[in-house]
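Figure 3 (text version): structure tokens given as input.
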């Protein structure tokens, strides 16, 4: 468990969403039930992390890849593919019902690259996004994918485009966008879950004290950022044989094992006034406004 905690802390404080340690070392984590055995491997390293972490991974890998298209390689694109697959698994229901907005926003931001939007690299990334939108797996671990991606560097050279660094890909894909996108998804989930509760005649249950006969949700930006960092700190542990099923176990920052981590995410969504939190976040990061929907 200490190994998981060390890896998690490294990932949270790093600008890179994956590490060589996570890629090269199989880490075995026993559950309290000794009959259950979990591993983090090259195939599951993105799957075990939370929704917030998957979104951050996607943003970082897009920024890094688009910043230097002439030197793109299979490893960087495989990391992006794994992050998209993990995101697609966690958002499977929302994607299937046409409720997921994040993937559409990525496509929209890709379009803002103007005449470069037809570049071979961007076309390949767009294809990967559309595969996730279709609820399908990006088969990143096969010779065809690797060969296609490795050829992109040559095609980028042939296309003779201007250096993406001059256009600052970080304007379009960055950590702040990942945070805002997480808040937007929590807002969607909160509205949906509140509607379900109203239809079922259930009360909103969170830990805040009642105010004027109602439950007061957390609404400050500090509360929202705390919820974000909390989600970043959860590691979902998968039975290697269970993929691509949703995570059924998780590990808190203190090392204690929790079950059905998605339920905890739902509770966080319900307990926050995400609409107000998003507005406050945009006030602090107005540079995001041209790129959000």
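Below: residues designed for each position.
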């Amino acid at each position: 468990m200490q190994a998981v905690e060390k890896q998690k802390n490294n990932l949270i404080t790093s600008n890179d969403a994956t590490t060589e340690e996570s890629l090269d070392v199989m880490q075995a984590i026993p559950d309290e039930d000794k009959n259950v055995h979990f591993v983090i491997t090259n195939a599951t390293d993105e799957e075990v992390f939370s929704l917030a972490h998957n979104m951050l991974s996607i943003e970082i890998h897009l920024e890094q890849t688009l910043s230097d298209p002439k030197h793109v390689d299979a490893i960087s694109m495989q990391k992006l593919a794994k992050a998209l697959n993990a995101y697609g698994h966690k958002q499977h229901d929302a994607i299937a019902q046409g409720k997921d907005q994040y993937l559409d926003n990525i496509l929209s931001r890709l379009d803002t690259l103007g005449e470069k939007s037809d570049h071979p690299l961007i076309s390949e990334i767009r294809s990967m996004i559309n595969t996730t939108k279709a609820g399908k797996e990006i088969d990143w671990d096969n010779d065809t994918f690797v060969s296609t991606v490795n050829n992109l560097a040559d095609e980028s050279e042939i296309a003779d485009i201007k250096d993406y660094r001059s256009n600052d890909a970080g304007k379009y894909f960055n950590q702040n966008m990942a945070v805002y996108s997480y808040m937007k998804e929590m807002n969607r989930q909160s509205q949906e879950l509140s509607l379900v509760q109203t239809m079922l005649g259930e009360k909103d249950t969170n830990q805040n004290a009642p105010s004027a006969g109602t439950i007061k949700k957390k609404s400050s930006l500090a509360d929202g950022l705390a919820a974000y960092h909390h989600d970043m700190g959860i590691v979902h542990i998968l039975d290697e044989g269970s993929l691509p099923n949703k995570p059924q176990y998780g590990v808190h920052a203190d090392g204690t094992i929790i079950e059905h981590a998605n339920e905890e995410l739902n509770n966080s969504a319900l307990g926050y006034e995400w609409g107000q939190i998003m507005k406050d976040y945009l006030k602090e990061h107005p540079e995001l406004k041209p790129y959000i929907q």
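The CA atoms of residues 11 and 168 lie 24 Å apart.
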